[in-house]
Amino acid sequence: MIKSYSLIKAGCYLGTRWFVRKIVGRDRLPKSGSVIITPSHSSLVDGVILTSLINISRLSPTHTIVQEDPFAHPVFGYMLRSARCIPLSRTRKDSIVEMFKVALGYLGKGDVVMIFPEGHLNNGESLRLPRPGAALLALESGAPILPLGLRGTRDIHETGGKFHFHKRAEVHYGKLIDTTALSLQYHSSSKARRKELVDELSMRMMKQIAELSGLQLHRRMK
Q1: What is the DSSP string of 135-174?
Q2: How wide is the angle at C-alpha 77 spanned by C-alphas 75 and 78, nearest 5°?
Q3: Are strands 145-151 and 62-67 parallel, antiparallel or unpaired?
Q4: For the residues of 85-116, what is the DSSP string, one character each?
Q5: Which H/E stretch holds residue 164?
Q6: How far is CA 19 from CA 138, 168, 170, 212, in A?
Q7: Neighbours of 191 (CB within 10 A)
Q8: Which residue of 12, 57, 193, 215 has the smallest Cβ count within 10 Å?
Q9: Residue 114: helix, strand or coil by DSSP?
Q10: 3-class DSSP state for residue 202?
Q11: 85 backbone φψ class: left, alpha, beta (φ>0; ψ -120 to 50)
């Protein structure tokens, strides 16, 4: 596993050097300690680019939450497991429970967990409504959230289209959201108040992501 992870890091480095032309706010990524990365999601290359950048900056693996289907592929599955990604099937409750258990375990050890709050690719113009997973992880763990905005990744590869290797992307790091006090409040609140806290934190996070990515908020969040 160590050798395979080293190969993943080497590939990440080369991929990042090739596809990223501009990085804004790189110093906002904590050098140590747990953090939940929440990026915009317009292209299938988003995860590769961000995992590359964060692995290089932190010199440790980024545990990205990924749909479980690619894990069954002999090549992609090996790469995802080597990169220590976390599989998820939203249609199975046991998979969701296991994802939270594994992700919280990594956060408890001071690692990085990356989750795309939109859940699926957006249309490149406006963000999707956020799913509650990112906010729930933060409120359960007390780990801070670092919103990220990606620009230009859809030009590199659009779903169902070809790769355009001459295109370049931008990565914009947001301001760290401290969830320590919110987490304490969450754990001592009623079920109804917990839902409100999840919604409030999700809104705060998505507003940053919209600004960083240059995309519009979903119409129901305006």
Answers
A1: HHHHHHH---EEEEEEESHHHHB-TTS-B-TT--EEEEE-
A2: 65
A3: unpaired
A4: -EEE-TT-HHHHHHHHHHHHHHHHTT-EEE--
A5: none
A6: 30, 5, 9, 18
A7: 6
A8: 193
A9: strand
A10: helix
A11: beta
Separation between Cα atoms, residue 50 and residue 162, nearest integer Å: 20
For residues 167 and 161, what is the distance between their CA atoms, to the nearest angstrom? 14
CA–CA gap between residue 84 and residue 213 (Å, rounded):
26
C-alpha to C-alpha distances, 144 to 113, 115, 187, nearest whole angstrom? 11, 13, 16
Q: What does residue 149 show for φ and ψ, rounded to 5 degrees?
A: -120, 130
pLDDT, one tens digit per residue, over 11-41 is 555 556 668 889 999 999 999 999 999 999 9
84-133: pLDDT as tens digits: 889 898 788 899 999 999 999 999 999 999 999 999 999 999 999 999 99
Cα–Cα distance measured from residue 122 to residue 135, given in angstroms and rounded to the nearest whole number: 19
